[in-house]
Write the structure tokens for this entry.
Amino acid sequence: MAITCLIRYEIDPFQRDAFREYAQRWGRIIPRCGGHLVGYFLPYEGTSDVAWGLISFANLAAYEAYRARLKSDAEGAANFAFAHDRRFILKEERTFVQNVEGAFQIAAEAS
């Protein structure tokens, strides 16, 4: 059963560039540590202080192995420190969901 970790961030809207840099760094770190990075998303229109990150795993055991590798990753530790020092993340929530077979990653039909 594939699972996806949805991370909802409450961010300082005046530090969007810092969050962008933080997210771009995860683009290198997460795959190296075993996660499938679906993506990070900044607000575009509407609410200006909520951002999202989505990371998928084959199962909960794969997530737990990823977390163990992440703890020993020097670049991951540096990115956590960057966020802590700059304080652009005000709040973080994690929710784990499972994919619904037949309703996940379905491309649009060509017309």
